[in-house]
Amino acid sequence: xxxxxxxxxxxxxxxxxxxxxxxxxxxxxxxxxxxxxxxxxxxxxxxxxxxxxxxxxxxxxxxxxxxxxxxxxxxxxxxxxxxxxxxxxxxxxxxxxxxxxxxxxxxxxxxxxxxxxxxxxxxxxxxxxxxxxxxxxxxxxxxxxxxxxxxxxxxxxxxxxxxxxxxxxxxxxxxxxxxxxxxxxxxxxxxxxxxxxxxxxxxxxxxxxxxxxxxxxxxxxxxxxxxxxxxxxxxxxxxxxxxxxxxxxxxxxxxxxxxxxxxxxxxxxxxxxxxxxxxxxxxxxxxxxxxxxxxxx
Length: 297
Hints:
Blueprint: H1 18-22, H2 81-86, H3 90-109, H4 113-129, H5 137-151, H6 158-163, H7 169-183, H8 193-202, H9 207-223, H10 231-244, H11 252-259, H12 263-273, H13 277-280
């Protein structure tokens, strides 16, 4: 039976230490896949996280133990449950839980690693300075993810964030305002163009319809032909109008399912935009359906 206990290596920041220069803090790469044993003894240790306070090497273990037969400190499943947690401070434990929530939400939204890293850093700053004390960590994490998406140029709507969070739009919105106020930071105003490429791609539209929908939405905003309508409903109505003039028609429900708005909301915005349709389309758009034959609602 071979098993290695958890190592704790202290950093020597105040003096030159030879060992600190040769310790690899990257992920463990060793594998036991070429062995004939039926027990998987592969070990995978997480990389060092610079956002955590604990400067220790943890997570690398070798174990060839049967469940329920390990020594004291090993759970029935053969894992080092108690020993794994023993070296993590309470502050880091809270951060790790929040980072896990952020990672789960990001996976559901197919967000890149750059946004996840920005969100983790933002959450750590908010958490340490106690700007949103008393608020749920999950709601704060969702608000941080919304801000990180906008700062990194991959914005998501509040509805999309709420769809992968356990908290309401109202609670996330409160945390969002508190974070912006406390950190004295700003995010760019969301426009229809920020979402148009992704929505059209999800609907299977080509470059021509995407360009037309972006132009229609921007013109509708500039001319203020749909006053009081939020940017998502204007974007959805623009996509629907462009599709009806092309050979790739989509229903209001199909567009609404992708954009995240009700088909009745699209219908209301479309009715406001319809009388101005001649001013909204780009001049080089190739109409499959004449502009006067577009549906009225």
